[in-house]
Amino acid sequence: MTISQRTIFSGCSFKNTTFEFTDNTISEFTDCVFEKCDLSNLNFNKIGIYRSVFKSCKLLGTDFTESHLQDVQFTENLLTYANFSGSTLKAVRFLENEAKETFFTACNFKNVELLKNQLEAANFWKTALAGIDFSTNQFERMEVTPQLAKNMKISLSQAPFFTSLFGIEII
């Protein structure tokens, strides 16, 4: 699908679709479903995405910077190198995604769920993580701001990473 003018999508369903468009031609997706679509390396920065679902999509390197996502679900997607930096995420659920080296830098999280994702080397720098449950996610390392990691929830197997982050030595 090629898009060349400013567009708002509402109530659309996309399956096995590859998108091509110039920067800043899309301003909003509302009530949309994306299934098995290739959205890799697209520029979705500064857009609104509301009540939408991304399922089994390829979002490799997709740029969501400074966007507003509300009531959105990402399920079983390839999100490696995706960039959500500076975005507001409200009631957003990430379930069973491959999200290695994904950027969530300086995000505003409210009711964000992270369940069974691969988050190796994901970057949550300058993002408040209080109340966020990481316990079902897989990672050996990730970037967080220590002062903003207070009250996040982790599993026992994830504890060694965070103790070293805070300079705690277990003997």
UniProtKB/TrEMBL annotation:
Pfam families linked to this entry: Pentapeptide_4
Lineage: Bacteria, Bacillati, Bacillota, Bacilli, Lactobacillales
Name of the protein in question: Pentapeptide repeat-containing protein
Family annotation (SUPFAM superfamilies): Pentapeptide repeat-like (SSF141571)
InterPro entries: 5peptide_repeat, PA_immunity-related
